[in-house]
Write a structure and sequence with these properties.
Layout: H1 14-28, H2 36-41, H3 50-62, H4 70-74
Helix pairs in contact: 1-3
């Protein structure tokens, strides 16, 4: 949801953001999103997305996103599977 609010990640193209978010999710949820189609679409190495990864992790840690809270409230609804209610704990990288 942090990519939906603010201009924090505008300098990255959408495909790089998606690849980075998948890496963050794998790290946070300690799982692998290894869908075959996703693997085919993934076009960046970890080294190529490292800067974007650092920014997203910093945004998650700092709480800069959700400044208004509107995005978070929106995604707490049932129709969005209540993803706005997920509690994310980041380990020190």
């Amino acid at each position: 949801m942090i990519v939906l609010e603010g201009n924090y990640l505008q300098r990255y193209n959408p495909s790089k953001i998606v690849s980075t978010v998948l890496l963050v999710c794998n790290s946070v949820f300690k799982t692998k999103f290894d869908n075959k189609k996703l693997q085919e679409m993934k076009q960046y190495s970890k080294e190529e997305i490292f800067e974007c990864y650092k920014e997203i992790v910093e945004l998650l840690r700092s709480g800069k996103s959700y400044a208004s809270g509107a995005i978070k409230r929106k995604y707490q609804a049932e129709k969005y599977y209540k993803v706005g209610k997920l509690k994310i704990q980041l380990k020190n990288d």
